[in-house]
Amino acid sequence: MSDAPSPTGPFSGLTRLDHVGIACRDLDASIEFYRTTYGFEVEHEEVNEEQGVREAMLRINGTDDGGATCLQLLEPTREDSPVAKFLARNGEGVHHIAFGTGDVAASAAGIGGRGVRVLDAEPRTGTAGSQIVFLHPKDCGGVLTELVQSNHQPQISTP
């Protein structure tokens, strides 16, 4: 944790829990588990070459701001990807959490101003064309944290 001053109120740039990322060795088997156990269906599936993963977003529910809460299942496509390294160290399980925001750059700047290291100098492309940044897990209670701006929402300025 940092020595940055505590904010005087809640950080209003974050709108919801967007998704929980789960590292897995076999994406198809994991999808089947969540489908048959909980009834979750795949909303989106893609290969992200930059991040070295094959991924599926399973929708859990919708939210008032038009977003959704999902599980993101991540299977590495190459041994040098961050998810492959995570699996080698930790095995299958929760890889990160992600919070939705209307303006990922402003949210990252605001959180960075509170002493949390932002791992991406500029937002980059994530699932389904979203804009994302990651926050350092050592500054977030040991949890890799992602900020996500959906490409389905208009950009909103945050305080």
Task: Write a structural description.
The protein is α+β, with helices and mostly antiparallel strands and 159 residues long. Helices cover 19% and strands 36% of the residues. It has three helices and eight strands; from the N terminus they run E-H-E-E-E-H-E-H-E-E-E. The protein has helices at residues 27-38, 82-90, 104-112; strands at 14-23, 41-48, 53-62, 68-76, 93-101, 124-125, 131-135, 145-149. It has an eight-stranded mixed β-sheet. Strand 3 and strand 4 form a beta hairpin. Residues 153-159 have low confidence and may be disordered.
Strand order of the largest sheet: 2-3-4-1-5-8-7-6
Number of DSSP E strands: 8
One letter per element, helices H and strands E, the order comes to EHEEEHEHEEE
* First and last CA, distance: 23 Å
How would a textbook summarize the main sheet? Answer: 8 strands, mixed
Write down the Rg.
16 Å
Taken from the alpha-carbon principal axes, the silhouette is globular
Beta content: 35-45%
Question: In which range does the helix fraction lie?
Answer: 10-25%
Structural class: alpha+beta
Mean pLDDT reading: 87
- Note the total helix count: 3
Poorly predicted parts: 153-159
